Amino acid sequence: MMRSWAVLLFVAISAIARGSCSNNPAGRESSENTLGDCVDSNHTAGRTNNKPDPRAEDSSAENELLLMANHSRELAGAPALRVDNSLLEAARRHAELMIAKQQMEHQYPGEADLMQRISQAGPLKIDYAGENIAYATCSTSANEAFMRSPPHRKNLLDQGFNVAGIAAIWNHGKLYVVQDFAHEIASYSSTESNQLVSRAVSQVRSEAGLAEFTQIAPAKLDDAACSLSDESHPNAHLLATSYSRSRIIVYTQTHPEELPQAARRALLDPNAREIAVGSCYARNSTYPTGTYWVAVLLY
Predict the structure, then answer these.
(1) If you write DSSP's letter for every residue of 15-81 in order, what string do you get?
(2) What pTM did the predictor assign?
């Protein structure tokens, strides 16, 4: 899967599912164009006299959509999705807004974009995300519409996605569906991410036949790395006054051990003898769901 210095966002167009629904509680993928009838026993949430209430969340439909998605992903060789509460909250908020606006959009005027909505909903650490939206007569109809639409199918079967939040809310006979997908990244403490960076540096030096650096620990380097997030992009000059007589390398990365090429060149300096590493996971407007901010000092 492609890694990027910046957060990537893939968003599909909305899908509108028309027609009746098939009884497919086991999540089997159908390639047929004809659909059967909906079965009320599979969609009991929010129903009175076999009709949906004006507005009601349908956890049964949400679970069925997850089962169907994971069945299709298994057939495609993609890892199963697990439900994440941050994504679920973001999806439900957007589904409620779709109902209030009575139109299908991924972003309404005044609404945050997908990555910002996910960051507002919880502490999930991700590097990219995607979203499917639809309204239908039941979960099976929505899933079949997604699977017949290339951009929605691409989101559903994306090999990189490993977490999801699926909202299904009834409103006056329509089931509004929002599927938010994301790739959750590993969560490291500052100590752990510093160790990953140090090991990556040692490998670069070893491959070049250079001596390994001596590790030193200047005061508050992790805090200094965190302060970098006050800017849109890492700025080495912010650390120059606090850590003099050193060569400073700063960068952002969702995988801190992946060293940028510019850093690799500096790390091969044969005159450098000592190294210090500081890091911090932090969010800002440029990285709404966060990234690792890394500071490397060479002496």
Answers:
(1) EE--S-----TT------S------GGG--TTEETTEE-SSEE-HHHHHHHHHHHHHHHHHHTPPPP
(2) 0.78
